[in-house]
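TOKENISE THE FOLD
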Amino acid sequence: MTFELPLAAPAWQPLPDLPGATLRYAPRAIADPDAWFARLRDEIAWERHRIRLYGREVDSPRLSSWVGDADAVYTYSRTRFVPHPWTPALGALRDAVSRWCGAPFNSVLCNLYRSGADSMGWHSDAEPELGPEPVIASLSFGAVRRFRLRHKRDASLSLDLPLAPGSLFVMAGTTQTHYRHDLPKTARVAAPRVNLTFRAIAAS
């Protein structure tokens, strides 16, 4: 089976204009997302990460893998992650997303949500290694899941977006400074989902 990527830029869909946020969404960036989902599920070395929550260490409510260049070491929730090497699929997707976004990426956080019981809590991608205005590019495969974005001080400024398989969602500018995002649990989804968030980590 071949896994060809389109050379042209994806078609971006209009999103609500939120002050302090730079957002783009392409619902059909990747062709044949089911085939890509199966390849990523099988090719990535999935792990159960430990995170700090309310002062104690707990198992993350999803499976993950940190992948990137050798110097793309990342600290999240007081845990230091040394990257796994790029797989062929992740390297190809990184190159395509970098071209579409006009931004270099040296790492990707891979998350496997096994069902609607797996989730991601409210947070901002605002670690010092990412710089003051990071570009975070997110590819989704598998089940449709609900992504929520909320302003840190004004809850009326928000976005609620179902991320389609094969879609690309990009956050840039001061989005991480002013907003948090999450992926809530849902009893309506039984199928798994793979999400890839590409980013650029400053070498330590």
User: Anything to note?
Assistant: The chain is about 15% helix and 35% strand. The chain has a mean pLDDT of 93.
